[in-house]
Amino acid sequence: MNSKLAWATATFAALVVFPCATALAGVCDLATVTAGPSIGPAKLTLKLAAPAIVGHNTLQISVRDDSGKPQPGAKVILSVLMTSMDMGTAHPPVKDLGGGEYSATIDFSMAGPWRVKAVVGSASQVLDVKVGAPMPMGGQGMEGMPNMQMSSMQGRLGPWSMSKEGSGTSWLPESSPMFMKMLPKSGRWDLDLMGFFTLNYSDSGGKRGDSRFYSNSMPMLMGMRGVGGGMLGFSLMGSLDPIFNGEFGYPDLFQTGETAYGIPLVDYQHPHDLISEVTASYSHPIGGGLNAFVYGGPVGEPALGGPTFAHRVSGMEIPEAPITHHWFDSTHISWGVVTLGLNSNTWQIEGSAFNGHEPDENRFSPDPIGLNSASARLTYDPSTDLSFNVSYGYLNSPESKEPGVDQHRLTGAALWNRQLAAGDDLAVTAGFGRNIMVGKNSDALFAEATYYHRKDSFFARWENVDKDELVGVPAGDYTINKLLFGGIKNLTSRDGFDIGLGAYAGVYGFPSTLKPFYGNPVTLGVFLRIRPGKGM
Ligand SMILES: [Cu+2]
Question: What is the pLDDT of residues 386-401, one digit of tens each?
């Protein structure tokens, strides 16, 4: 327990102290923005004339002095920006109506969170606005808005912003930033590109840690269009892992799961399949604020675990796969999946039939498709910043080395995202996974966070997991702790892509029985990362 506490403290320090130092720099910048010619103390009130919509909105501004006396003739400067995406900052003109009242027309070009800031001299006031998603699919459009812009940012499972939807059919906090590039519309299809590509070099450290160059990638093409009063979507996802990383994958100390040449992979992260998702979805409102949906395909992600590590905003910048992957989100590539679900704005309940066998060693070819396993998941988003999920699954004979040995899996996760000043974000996830086999349980915990500061990011992840499948060590159940932390400095952004240089370190805690075999490992790595920037 004590060692857990020590690790949790170290994680907290890495997550909070490190980012805060840079956050202060941001605060200083804000101060310079608001400084200006002083006209004496003023009090600003901002109000929208009607609920915010996609399109033109009228903003009412009143300016008073300290004693409440109206201040006509003030110079009011407005800044309007979308906080979940980098769409630039607009400065709409302000009309002086006399008597200390002013107005401006503000154009919210899409649904989601916006921030309006007014500055008069040394006084300023911020108004945070949630622009609702347009009416569902193909129906009555907002006046003057072309249909294209309306549906393009809408989720596939219901009438909310796409930012609420994670991998498969999982949910994120709706305030999460989106890293994607909107592609030209193809016929009636809205197309988006997501995912990432990295070039890495890492040394896992210690006696058993390998060092080598490798690459991680997960390009994803998503499409959607309104059909018959509902939303039709598809996802195509791939990975170049098998091309760059061979049969063994990349060094990831204490990682376990899947095989190469019939031998269990230990201390390596297995490569992902070249084709890792081919799915379609359809959701339709069924009245009473509810939507029903179906999702499935030859390869995809069942409703088990939460959003996978490479798609969580809190984890997508972290270059090593979690060593808790096979306790939480390892079923994200299942050869055969069908999910049925029901949701409202805050709840989602789903059930899946899927193939519980882990992908085979041939990462280039499709696997046999089956629906031999089942799972159910409940998700609750009580606010735009929070998302909770719990899931339970039955996995039929998941491991090829242990045919006929079934597993059950119980998972739970809490995800939190907060939009900070100047378009920064802080995303945090904590999760729990339990693999249940005959006669024994095996548990895993993780907590991770990424702080997005301008185009840079700082990340940390702590994991605690029971491993009994380490090889070349005395047989036993070992509790492994791993703390990984680092950051990415953005080098350049072009054509909607951010290219950054990252570095990280990983440290471990494990029973002394393993010391003769693992030594005192410290993992060090550097990498180049390319992914779409925030927004389009
Ligand atoms: Cu995986």
Answer: 999 999 999 999 988 8
